[in-house]
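Review form for a predicted model. The reviewer records the input and the model, then writes brief findings.
Reviewer: anonymous (R2)
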Amino acid sequence: MKLNRQMQANTRIYPEKVLQFGEGVFLRGFADWQIHQMNKRTAFKGSIVAVNPRITGNAGKLNKQDGLFTVSLQGIQDGKAVKEHEVIESISRGLNPYEDYEGYMQLAEKEELRFLISNTTEAGIAFLEEDRLEHAPQKSFPGKVTAFLYKRFKAFQGDPTKGLIILPCELVERNGDLLKKMVLRYADKWNLEKKFTEWIHEANAFCCTLVDRIVPGYPNDENTLNELSYEDEFFVIAEPFYLWVIEGPEWVKEEFPAEEAGLHVKFVNDIAPYALQKVRILNGIHTATMPVAYLAELNTVREAVEDEVIGTFIRKCLYEEIIPSLPVSEEESLSFAKSALERFQNPFIHHELMSISLNSMTKFKTRNIPTLKQYVEKQGALPTLLTFSLSALISFYKGKREGEKIELSDDPAVLEMYESIWNTYDGTEKSISYIVKEVLGYKEHWGEDLNMIPSLTGAVTNGVLAIETFGMKQAMKEILCVTATKQ
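Model under review:
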């Protein structure tokens, strides 16, 4: 039997307080799960209307399950394996504005509506010149938001208490500011009255957010599916860890009682340190680990962190080089690092190293080069393990692992550069030195000549030479011995 409210005892549909653009796995396993917890634990008592942001979507199918779906938390929490299922009741209905635009716009007239949440992918917050106010609906997400807010402004005659708290979850830097900028741009393009623009500024809170949770989605494990006594087309697997950082006015946390519900949601005045922490610790160690672990013939993040040699590299790089370089609270960073390592060991999520390898040069530039430079500035020396991971990255872009071809995925110019310089390799230290100098001097990518960082060229050259001569595992053992003698 398909999951529905008749088979669920004591389900409640609360006033529709939340308009949600997006009905995909991430929002269901992240925001919708949290609002369900708030409904259980606090007086929030609000439901979500999940709207298709694109012409194709799952609103209709979701309605066949009365908005219900199961979230299965699977992973490591406080050192223990966790696997628990829960039916989430926070969505009252799905709505497709391409099929029922009038019904969608009627939401703007709801007194109780207070929040707008979105996840329309990184490309979703974009301005399209062809969008018009009279379109039903507009093609772009910001265009839809502008038209919706204008309808609400008109319906309540500019009442300053009828604005919305807007929580975009797109993985874009300062996402709230960007969305507000787009809305104001549409208001100007459509020649909407000045009072509407003032209402946007004064009555609405466009919050910048940082979201973090791995939500793989529908399980591919028959045993997990068989654990349910019903059919659920929207079954979602998510890791136990989650973090939602919200930068906005102080009063937002009173209306969105996530802290009261005991949820891992932080309301902050400045989101930048949290974004920096996530990028440098979680994303940075992923990027540093990928070429080292893959060339050591490992294939998943879990294999890497549990391997005696590579696991030691990960922990030492994290605790001895990355965290000491961060201009944020050490206590917060250590706690975040601990949770990151638990996430890497998740026995239920198969995280392929090659899935992390996409655009690794850009990732190393944005995530790890700043850490390397700040370490040098603070310590007066190179971070040994981060430097070695740069050597490993250069070896990775040779495109071979134990004689087998690596399917590299990066900007064509980057791949052409690597193919050209690795074609000069003749097995000598001189040719490796040339390769390293060319990569570090690739100003078009790095925005600077990394050869100018004292001792970096020689250290990276030695690392590549060791990898090419002895193989990754032996080269890594030698590097770890070096770091041990420094302590």
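Findings: The chain has two domains: 5-269, 273-486.
Further findings: The chain has a mean pLDDT of 93.
Recommendation: see findings above.
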